[in-house]
């Protein structure tokens, strides 16, 4: 089969389109013929920072038709359309993934949109669950225009929360008002915390959902209410963030690490993700697609996925 892979960490041009051996599903895995690949933030970070194993195919999310199954798999049938998650293997014509991290695609839902749901919107739903966001509360979404951020904005707004989002481009924040954003904060010249205090008249937010990390999280904690929850999803801002432990103690802040992958197949996350497919089918969850590329142009697809100012996911099609 054909796949897009890289042999050393680096920029998009490290990706090459090559012939590789077909995957063989393990006893608990599905084998799918890939029809759509969603480029996730973790794919970009991994390609940039992590050296791959020999002939290891990158990529988290892919959807397609089941063409094989391990002997222990139950609840799936050959020929069904599913979307899958695994830590590797999506950037290929065939993909093996654990059945526990695979989801049936409802009839009538675009398979490209379906490929995006477990990681992006799924992470948003799980983060809001962990944060215990309640109707009437105020949530601050750091990185509101990204895939997870945009889904968080929508889900929080549907819950009845006031949604404040940060971004680097005012035009991007303006575009996502139609998704439920109440207030946009442009980061750069002035700290986000300073702008939020001015916006809220000195009040603070109940919940932080952080897709950025680093200094953005440290700054945001200054406007988190006493006893509030901050959920950390991304580390684009750096992995060695220093948080004042005394400040956490004084203000009774809770910082929760949210990595959905290991928990995706558990009962509650799986239920939340399954509900998202139906929401997308009914139009209650909007998943914009920015661009589609052939898998053979994976370098260009990754380059586009790294561009700021986009709204929506970048897909690849084998």
UniProtKB/TrEMBL annotation:
User: In this protein, which residues make up the domain named Enoyl reductase (ER)?
Assistant: 10-316
Q: What class of enzyme is it?
A: oxidoreductase
Show the InterPro entries listed in the entry: ADH-like_C (IPR013149), ADH-like_N (IPR013154), ER (IPR020843), GroES-like_sf (IPR011032), NAD(P)-bd_dom_sf (IPR036291)
The superkingdom listed in its UniProt entry is Bacteria
Matching entries from Pfam families are given as: ADH_N, ADH_zinc_N
User: Which GO-annotated molecular functions does the record name?
Assistant: NADPH binding; quinone reductase (NADPH) activity
What does the record give as EC number? 1.6.5.5
Per UniProt, which keywords does this protein have?
Answer: NADP, Oxidoreductase
Q: Does the keyword Oxidoreductase apply?
A: yes
Name listed for the protein in its UniProt record: NADPH2:quinone reductase
- Native species of this protein? Rhizobium wenxiniae
Question: What high-level taxonomic lineage is stated for the organism?
Answer: Bacteria, Pseudomonadati, Pseudomonadota, Alphaproteobacteria, Hyphomicrobiales
């Amino acid at each position: 089969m054909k796949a897009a892979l890289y042999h050393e960490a680096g920029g998009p041009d490290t990706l090459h389109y090559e012939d590789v051996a077909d995957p063989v599903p393990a006893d608990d895995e599905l084998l799918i013929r890939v029809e759509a690949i969603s480029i996730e933030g973790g794919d970009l970070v991994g390609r940039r920072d992590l050296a791959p194993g020999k002939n290891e195919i990158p990529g988290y999310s892919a959807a397609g038709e089941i063409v094989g199954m391990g002997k222990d798999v139950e609840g799936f049938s050959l020929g069904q359309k599913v979307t899958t998650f695994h830590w590797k293997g999506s950037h290929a014509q065939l993909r093996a993934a654990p059945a526990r991290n695979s989801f049936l695609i409802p009839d009538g839902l675009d398979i490209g949109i379906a490929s995006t749901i477990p990681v992006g919107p799924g992470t948003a739903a799980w983060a809001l669950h962990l944060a215990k966001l309640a109707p009437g509360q105020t949530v601050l979404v750091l990185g509101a225009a990204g895939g997870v951020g945009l889904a968080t904005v929508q889900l929080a707004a549907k819950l009845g929360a006031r949604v404040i989002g940060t971004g680097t481009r005012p035009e991007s924040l303006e575009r996502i008002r139609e998704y439920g954003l109440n207030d946009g904060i442009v980061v750069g010249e002035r700290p986000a915390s300073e702008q939020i205090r001015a916006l809220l008249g000195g009040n603070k937010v109940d919940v932080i959902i952080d897709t950025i990390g680093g200094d953005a999280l440290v700054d945001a904690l200054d406007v988190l209410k006493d006893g509030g929850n901050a959920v950390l999803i991304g580390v684009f801002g750096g992995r060695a963030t220093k948080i004042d432990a005394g400040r956490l103690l004084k203000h009774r802040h809770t910082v929760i690490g949210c990595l959905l992958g290991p928990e995706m197949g558990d009962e509650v996350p799986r239920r939340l993700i399954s509900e998202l497919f139906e929401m997308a089918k009914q139009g209650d969850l909007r998943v914009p697609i920015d661009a589609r590329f052939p898998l053979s142009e994976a370098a260009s697809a990754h380059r586009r996925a790294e561009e700021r100012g986009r709204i929506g996911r970048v897909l690849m099609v084998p």
